[in-house]
Design a protein that fits this description.
Blueprint lengths: L7 E6 L2 E6 L6 H9 L9 H20 L5 H16 L17 H18 L12 H5 L5 H34 L12 H13 L9 H6 L2 H27 L10 E2 L17 H25 L9 H25 L5 E2 L1 H9 L9 H4 L1 H14 L3 H8 L4 H7 L2 H4 L40
Length: 447
């Protein structure tokens, strides 16, 4: 018996045409991602897809209420997004986790599925992008850079509060009912009196453990405290890395900020200055993250009635606190206070940034704006030059639409810009998005 070939339809995006299984609601960008990211089998879990549907519902309602989306389109988008949230369209989300780090492919997967279902709800043809467009309508006022993190938070809160906390509390109550506190060889109220004295001596509030067996066998409070130190280390790692890359140069790097020149950076290259404070801070944060693994293992291996990793926990926690405090003070004193922007370099990069095309989308639509950005990239021109060459805008119209200061939410004087003053509800321009190639002067090649 011969198997009938699967029906196909042609979908289009800014890269051109591509065939898609006609039975599916996803479109061109999802299909490209299927073909380009054949890595593993791990897909986003049901909880995340549910959250993604809820985010798209909320965004459509907000756009409707703000006058950015007509009520008919918004209603269809909300209905389609509700199907995503309910799980009815789970088979329409085939992409693996191993894709672009921003999650753009999965955001577009949701946009395409919701748009095509909304088109059907309104009596249109799947794949036509009319009357509902995946970018201009479903993704209006949004970016993958905010949709995906929002969905992460929504999913995490729902699962932590709905599943994890009730289960953990039930287990805690069961275990507590089977445990007795110990005060072996100590007079009554001894612990409470010691806690009060310590509070008076140190100026910090201390109380006795409610379950002293647990306090001997486990050190969860120390593990949790070091978890907060790890979180601080993660934040400081990003800060230090951002600073050293933005300061890299002066010729081959980004060079948008200037940092203090505290000491020579090389024993062989005269005049070289390294971002030494950032590098020192990064070594500290690496140590703290390593300490967090040690503290976590030490806490987990406290078998039965007594944890016998106390010296390690004490050493690691106090070392992390000391290193972070010292490194923060040093970074503040020797780098942060002297950090300055380099306006000319920033203006140079900003003027040639293709990401400013975001400001053209409300006026021209996603597909036409993408054509302008593609032309500018291909011909090595600015967006302004490409938009004029395409006949899409005059120079005056471009200048009125593309206002980078409005896309940040602030004018040059530092006053907030109302959303109605901005060319987009959400400015997503980025200078770094246009910077490619190696950073040659970020560190000392000797080392």
């Amino acid at each position: 018996m011969t198997r009938e070939p699967e029906a196909r339809r042609v979908e289009r995006d800014t890269m051109g045409e591509i065939e898609v299984d006609a039975r599916r609601y996803w479109g061109a960008q999802t299909q490209r991602a299927i073909e380009h990211f054949r890595i593993g089998t791990e897909r986003f879990p049901r909880e995340f897809i549910r959250a993604l549907g809820l985010v798209k519902q909320a965004a459509a309602i907000a756009n409707r209420d703000l006058g950015r989306l007509d009520a008919v389109k918004a209603g269809a988008i909300v209905s389609a997004a509700d199907l995503v949230a309910s799980g009815a369209l789970d088979e329409e989300f085939p992409l693996v986790v191993w894709q672009t780090g921003s999650g753009t492919q999965t955001n577009m997967n949701a946009n395409e599925v919701i748009a095509n279902r909304a088109i059907e709800i309104l009596g249109g043809e799947r794949g036509s992008k009319a009357p509902v467009h995946p970018n201009d309508d479903v993704n209006r006022s949004q970016s993958s850079n905010d949709v995906i993190p929002t969905a992460m938070h929504v999913a995490a809160v729902a699962e932590i509060e709905g599943r994890l906390l009730p289960a953990a509390r039930a287990l805690r109550d069961t275990l507590a009912a089977k445990a007795d506190a110990t005060g072996l060889n100590a007079p009554p109220e001894f612990g409470e009196r010691v806690a009060r004295e310590l509070a008076g001596l140190t100026g910090h509030r201390f109380v006795t453990a409610t379950n002293r067996f647990a306090a001997l066998a486990s050190h969860d409070a120390m593990v949790a405290a070091h978890g907060a130190l790890r979180t601080l280390a993660v934040a400081l790692t990003k800060i230090a890395n951002d600073v050293r890359w933005l300061a890299s140069g002066p010729r081959a790097g980004i060079g948008e900020i200037a940092i203090p020149e505290n000491e020579p950076g090389s024993s062989i290259m005269p005049g070289k200055v390294n971002p030494t404070q950032a590098e020192a801070l990064l070594m500290v944060t690496a140590q703290v993250m390593g300490n967090d693994v040690a503290v976590g293992m030490a806490g987990a291996l406290g078998n039965f009635e007594l944890n016998v990793y106390k010296p390690l926990i004490a050493h690691a926690v106090l070392q992390s606190v000391r290193l972070l405090a010292d490194a923060c003070e040093s970074f503040d004193r020797h780098l942060a206070r002297g950090l300055e922007p380099r306006p000319a370099r920033i203006a140079e990069h900003l003027g040639r940034s293709l990401m400013l095309v975001t400001a053209l989308v409300p006026r021209l639509g996603y597909d036409r704006a993408a054509k302008i950005a593609t032309r500018a990239h291909r011909e090595g021109t600015t967006l302004r030059e490409a938009a004029i060459a395409e006949g899409a805008l005059s120079a005056e119209e471009f200048d009125a639409l593309v206002r980078p200061e409005a896309m940040t939410g602030h004018d040059p004087r530092g006053a907030p810009i109302r959303q109605s003053d901005s060319t987009t509800l959400r400015g997503s321009a980025t200078v770094q998005g246009d910077i490619v190639g190696p950073i040659l002067d970020a560190g000392d090649p000797e080392t």
